[in-house]
Amino acid sequence: MLYLTPSLGRFKRLSPTNPKRPLSELVPESLYVILFERLLPKTNLHHWGLYHHQDAERGGSKYHVDDATGRWITQHGTTMEATNSDFLIGLIRIADFDPAERLRIKECIQADDKVLDSIYGMDCRVWVTRALGRLKSEGIINFESLEILDREILEFANINEFRFIYGVQPRALGYSKVCGLTH
């Protein structure tokens, strides 16, 4: 079935000629901030998560938290669908690393998982920025400040939100200049 969606002033067919992004377009052994639309009438209120991409054959690991049950819970797991979520805005690459670092990265990301409800102001964005701070302190990623990186991620999400709104595929894929990546 084909759907017509408005795209930049004209209609565009979602079809094999307008496909979703294949995993092969992601950089192997990289960490991404993955952003989703939350359908809220305010800007800067996207759902944030982290995605560690291994490669196109194995996909990767998704990390995010959710409060759908009234308590903050983790929603971690492996996925081959990181680029195919209906509510996906895009992925912004923040680090490349050696496969030997996988366990260390996972531990940094999941360090808050058992105390989610005790963290003041907890939401998915706070959870991601706390994990990014730990990854920086471990020397896994590099950036000047969380505030500057946060601004870059929000700008990426706000600029690319139209891809979700208008059904444009593939969704946005970017890289962090703040983290020193050049492509």
Brief digest:
By secondary structure, the protein is α+β, with helices and mostly antiparallel strands. The protein has three helices and ten strands, in the order βββββββββαααβ.
Can you walk through the features of this model?
Helix 1 (102-110) crosses helix 2 (124-137). The protein has three helices and ten strands. It has helices at residues 102-110, 124-137, 146-165; strands at 4-7, 10-13, 30-36, 47-55, 59-63, 65-66, 73-74, 77-79, 88-96, 172-175. 23% of the residues lie in helices and 27% in strands. It is globular and about 40 Å long. The chain is α+β, with helices and mostly antiparallel strands and 183 residues long. The termini are far apart. A hairpin with a 2-residue loop joins strand 1 (4-7) and strand 2. The strands form three sheets. A six-stranded mixed β-sheet has the order 8-5-4-3-9-10. Strands 1-2 form a two-stranded antiparallel sheet.
